[in-house]
Amino acid sequence: MAHSVRRDAPELPDFSLLKRLARDQLIYLLEQLPGKKDLFIEADLMSPLDRIANVTTLKEHEVDKLYKVEHKSIVSTSDQLCFLIRPRIQTVKWICDVVNADKAVGKFRRYKVIFCPQKFYACETLLEEQGIIGDVTTDEWSFYLLPLDDDIISLELPEFFRDNFLEGDQRWVRTAGSALHLLHSLYGPFSKVYGIGRCSKMAYESWREQVKEGEQRVRQADIGNVFLIDRDVDLVTPLCSQVVYEGLVDDIFRIKCGCVEFGPDVTSSDKSMKVMLNSQDKVFNEIRNEHFSQVFGFLSQKARNLQTAYDKRSGMDIKQMKTFVSEELKGLKKEHRLLSLHIGASESMMKKKTKQDFQEMLKTEHSLLEGFEIRECISFIEEHINRQVILFSGLLPKDYRSLKAQYLQSYGVDHLLTFSNLKQLGLLVEQQPGETLTVMESRVGKLVNDKTAGKLTDAFSSLAKKSNFRALSRRLNLVPKSDEEYDLRVPRDMAYIFSGAYIPLSCKLIEQVLERDGWTGLEEVTRMINGHEFAVTAGSNGSDPRGRSDAQRIILVMFLGGCTYSEISALRFLGKEKGYKFVVVTTAITNSARVLESMLDNHA
Amino acid sequence: MSLMIRGKPDDDEYWNSSKFKAFTFDDEDDDFTRLKESKRAVNSILVEDEDEEDEVEKVNWSGEPVGSISWSVKETASNIRSTGEVRDLSFPKIDTAPSLPKNSSGYSLSSLFKGKAKTGSLQSFSESFSEQSLRNYAPELRKPKSEYKDYISDWTPEETVKRMQQGKAYSLEKFHFLQDKLLLLDEAVNAHDGNVITAVLIFLKKSLSKEILFRELIAREIALRHYIHYLKEMGEHKHLVELFKSLGRTEDMALMQYRDHLNIKDENRRRDFLKNCLSLPFSQEDATHVLDHYTLLERQIIIEANDKHVESSSQADIFKKYPRKASILNMPIITTLYYSCFYHYGESEGTYSSPANIRKTFRISDKQFLLTCLGARAKLKAWFDVDALFTTKNWLGYTKKRSPIGFHRIVDILHKNNAPVQVLQEYVNLVEDTEQKISLAQKYKCHDVIINTYRDLKDRQLLIGYREKVERSSPEYRKIEELLCNSQIRWKN
């Protein structure tokens, strides 16, 4: 990247230990089941499992056949079945059906259910009610944390968002606490914890309890500071279209567990290819945090360099050529392959975005963020609903009813249920009559005087804050005001991730709190967020407050409810500016499509 | 660049006041050209043995080499919790949630009476016994010796919740008094562990009548939400409906019941179900939508039956030429309208399948109707119908083209449906803003529009410039030549 980088940034700790721990525990669990067995794996556990183990590992521990959990009747002939699943009622119901079907035909097998990352009582109760405890034994695989990259760790729990913020179910709070506890044990002790949001506060408490129960061995801290943040503190950012390379790739191709599948249009061949996207990919590593408009220039330059490197061959004698082949050629070819992939991806994204009126959409989003031209924006959204092009994500003022009606006409009346969810989450809110229209409110939705808010107190109170977006944005300078052009080649602040139009609220809060070493001076902001903010320091005879100075500059940011690649890019930028290193821990990687999909309710 | 297209005055205001440099995805953009060149360059570099597929990391089951499993789980575990020196690293407790309504008189009494514990599903008895302190003196005095083994414990609600969180053996059976049950629930809520809250709720569901449970949940919002979520996941809709009813949340109840239609596959049964839904207490607004839903499905069933018959008996050409890809059942209103504009265009308003009838029944806005209709007719290349959509006659009989949406949008839609240049340029001409018109005309190669616009602007220089872009000896070229020689035109440059 072009901008200056502070050289004293500390090294990140090695998180591969987390993978080893998870793998060892899985092996231990499999060894508890001697003999051949068939393994059924929950669909969304397959990729995480892929990252830490492989078929050989499983085969070595007498796993015979592998199946994906598909909620259909099974064909296995093995007399021992093992299910590796998330603790979900639906999946457990299916297992009950499988077991009872076997019983009905007099087939005897042994069944083991391994819940990942933990059991829930509701699941066990179901097994009990179905009369199959005994036939079925259960276990837990405490695989909480999957490192996706040097600085990203995911809990791979996308349902955290809906369960916690929509349904008000706190089942994952302790999970978050346990994850934090694991990190604290391996990379702590932490000396400071900052946080904002109700769930963050609860996760902090859960972690603190677990620390109290266990014993901490003495070690030198790798990570000094922790910042916990609830996703519903900032729902605007994940709903924005992403324009940083990695975020854009996620929006368009959907990165799954750090891996993306590029179709034939990208690979310029007849087959799709799965590619890992992380810092190991040298080309990707250089463009992932760049605004998309800067990527072309970089790739072109890279292509020219590559050509030059290949061209060197022409004037070589045999000996030089031999050295070239043994030392450089392999690297060059690898780079070549990566380069053509990313060029292909850029090209394909460009085509798709041109088709979709992306320009108009960005313009609409930016206007909504700035608070201009609300009328234009609404008609744009309206037109898209009419054309059944996009699922709109904005929050609409007095036109709410009309838009809702048009939306239902276009996408099906079933979406009444989705609307009810969006409303409950505070993403979509209708204005109360008599209020003047304020613009930002329309984007994030406002709950303000909503009558239901009074009734559903606690879990809802966090939503009232959203009406304050405009004031918040002014207070924190989220929408830069200067009239000069924003040069995306030399970003001057985190706003570059949204073309200079908006600094993500989440990241701005983190920046401010770290700068002030707490929430002092941000009282008005936290009041507007209604934030449950806190900042705590370890007890006096805890770790040396100065600690290792490096550790104090490594900051673990935990997003409860998911974070986007754009936010990660923004934090990386902030880290470079201030000499920090951020480690992002998230319940899942999210984006606007995933946030909205989690609200859909039009399927049986 | 598309940014320069000035649609409405508001647009200018927006872009002028905007400080960030927006970028564009336009094809014409330099960057894109550059990218294309790079792509060509990279792809043209010849490299020997292309077959080293392994260079790009692929993710599959055999991807990673097997790592050495030297660490046993026990070893790693002991690393985490070694019994070495323990330092006080404690963090302060922070006030988390609504305070627990303490009611101490509740359990002090009950703790004197030890109920018999059923030996149900509890996993490890031995554990619970070994950990048990000698607190059961009082009951032991009262119980016959043979029952000793039946006791589980004497844990307080707080201890019980803690044990549940830690996955240790516990028993809820001794919580007989309502007071105790509620204290247990409040304690679980206070521990912020949704898993335990739900476990306690399952126990309460089994041991309290609905009326009592619902009554107590009203005052306990967090527990209530866990309960609702649990019932949803278990699919206990009847129970949930009762709960909503007793809470007075009638709209939630209505939506809950309405939701069940998703489980009904048979369209006739689904229609009847929706009909029954009409009487549910929806909000006024939602009631309209549900009525629409019912009406829509009712008509779709009629249309489907009819069209299926017509299609199979090859009565109408349109079905032969464009066979239906899917049934129209359960499609959204707009899709149904599109379908009707596609297969039933021109039918009189009296028939259910006619566009006019659908438009009226479902109160479809002019814009939406136009866009849908335009899409369908353009797909069929029925340019005459497209033309008629925009044509209005005034009282003198003059015709004029009008549209509730900008003509630049119309042009985009027509282009996406492969409209020929002759059709396109008619609509490009209707775009009011000159700059936008020129840019569209260039994009879609409507030479006549460009040439005429430059002529009307009396801009000789632009015309000369454009002459270079068209092919020599083409009709466009000749037209430009003629204009440039025309001495009648007073050029401004």
Automatic annotation (TrEMBL), chain A:
Instruction: Assign the protein's first listed, main location to one coarse class.
Output: membrane
Top-rank taxon of the source lineage equals Eukaryota
Query: A cellular component term (GO) from this record?
Result: late endosome membrane
Q: Which InterPro entries match?
A: Sec-1-like_dom1 (IPR043154), Sec-1-like_dom3a (IPR043127), Sec1-like (IPR001619), Sec1-like_dom2 (IPR027482), Sec1-like_sf (IPR036045), VPS33_dom3b (IPR043155)
Q: Which GO terms describe its biological process?
A: protein transport; vesicle-mediated transport
Q: Does the UniProt entry include the keyword Membrane?
A: no
Membrane-related topology note: Peripheral membrane protein
- Supply the alphabetized keyword list: Protein transport, Transport
Per the record, the similarity remark reads:
Belongs to the STXBP/unc-18/SEC1 family.
How is this protein named in the record? VPS33B late endosome and lysosome associated
Which species is the source of this protein?
Answer: Esox lucius (Northern pike)
What is this organism's lineage?
Eukaryota, Metazoa, Chordata, Craniata, Vertebrata
TrEMBL record, chain B:
State whether keyword Nucleus applies.
no
Principal location class: cytoplasm
Q: Which UniProt keywords apply?
A: Cytoplasmic vesicle, Endosome
**Which Pfam family, any one, appears in the UniProt record?**
Vps16_C
Q: Which residues form the Vps16 C-terminal domain?
A: 179-277
Record's InterPro entries? Spe-39, Vps16_C
Q: Would I find DNA repair among this entry's keywords?
A: no
An example GO CC term for this entry is: early endosome
Where found in the cell? Cytoplasmic vesicle; Early endosome; Late endosome
Q: Name one GO biological process term.
A: vacuolar transport
Record-linked PANTHER family: DEFECTIVE SPERMATOGENESIS PROTEIN 39, SPERMATOGENESIS-DEFECTIVE PROTEIN 39 HOMOLOG
Q: What is this protein called?
A: Spermatogenesis-defective protein 39 homolog
**Lineage of the species this protein comes from:** Eukaryota, Metazoa, Chordata, Craniata, Vertebrata
Gene field: VIPAS39
